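Follow-up to my post from last week.
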Amino acid sequence: MSSWALSHYAFRSAATGIRRSPFIHGAAVGALAVVLFATGLVAGGSRWLSQVINGLGSEVELTVYLKEGTRFEEAQALAQALSLRSKGETQVVAPEQALARLVQELGPLGSALTGLPENPLPLSVEVKLPPKGRNPQALKQLEQELKRVGSVEAVDYGEAAVERLASMVRLLQLGGMLVTVIVWAITAVIVAATLQLAIYARRQEIEIQKLVGATDLFVQLPFLLQGIMQGLLGAALACASIWFLALGMGPRLAAALSFLAMGEGTAGSCWVNLQAFGTLFLLGAFLGLVGSFLAVARLSRN
Amino acid sequence: MPFLMVQLLHVTKAYPGNAPSLADVSLKIDKGEFLFLTGPSGAGKTTLLKLIFSAEAVTEGEVRVGGKNIARIRESAVPYLRRNVGVVFQDFKLIADRTVAENVALALEVLGVPPKSCRERVAAMLKRVGLLSKAELRPNHLSGGEQQRVVIARALVNEPTLLLADEPTGNLDPALTIEIMDLLNDATTRGTTVIVATHDESLLDRYQKRTVRLDGGRVVSDSQALRAVPDQSSEQVSG
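User reply:
Got it. Predicted complex:
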């Protein structure tokens, strides 16, 4: 059988099947749309949370305190090497500069420091790390490397805070993934059940096809395509709903949460972007295909 | 020597808890032959047809179609066997929500015939059975005879080597019966082997074809066998 003739038949039959049983297929598309809409919202929420956490995480700064007697040029060389190694921004902070900053941060209490006979603060290098380097493992590794440098006295990066943030992100990701997988499995079963109804509605046609020599592939292909079409239609509805919601709610959300450091982009862009919508379409097609596989597997057994 | 299209060797078909529908049936049907299968209701006519197109499996014995023992073919190979066998079902088995042309095209679609060629062959077939003007109608808008002709068109459109017809003229008036039988008879002129199951004795009288009579699942007579046996009474008279 030529693949062109088979594809032509399968597409025509799938489209005709959807047109002839709009209620059954509408129910499947609706179920898929709801799940994909929820998935889109959760995924957008997760992206937004990551942005917030990254925003908070940008406070994470690694400070390298240098030994007494280290020259400014040596500190500059170290800062340059560190910048290359960590791909972050580095700054050499002279003891005087560090003291001035501390005085300013302490406010009225800062005046107590101005009377000190000598500056107790060492020469240091501050590193602002890119998001990739903010995880506990990367920071720990960098700390160990720095401790091997002769001029380094101590390294500080707020270890406990970084680990707390990282475990929070891990927990959220794991929980989200678990819920998502359960919801997807339920959706695949819903799609399979609706396609079972479609198959039941066309049982006479299937029986006749088999009697005139149709192979399993010939009978099953239109249903597999129907599953994919349902998934794509569901994804289109879900994307449209998310877009409208983001359009209406985005500015309000951004205003309500303006106190949070959001980094680049707006709150709405976490939900509405090409990659997110593309993923929803792929996911919809995948869920539809899995559901239709479940349905047609039973068909070939019968 | 004629090519054997269908051969049944000591075939028995039994359903659990029932007497065998067919018991030790042996039969040979040549290519291009026209054969009537007759007998009372429950004689095993439909069961025999079902065994030939692999809708049922034999309990014992062998069914050979085109030389192949179909009891031994893989399940995945059954569709390929059926593509060479046109079947005219007693209950028509037409798809109600498809047009006449779409119903006939089904037999070509499963073969993967390209859409354009499919349309041409369907039109030619519908013209042959006199239904071209009704190609776009649904089966429920046709008379019983017309529906039967659609079924025959579907069975013949892919030019099968074997055509099975189960009571193709049941419930038809005499004029339509002749029309349908002529169509089936015409198929043999194109090399198709035709097996018609019927309990209509008038058809047997009219067409004078080879007739195999079944009763209680057994072959009780075969007109070909009778012809093959020398007429002993005439020999006695002459002797």
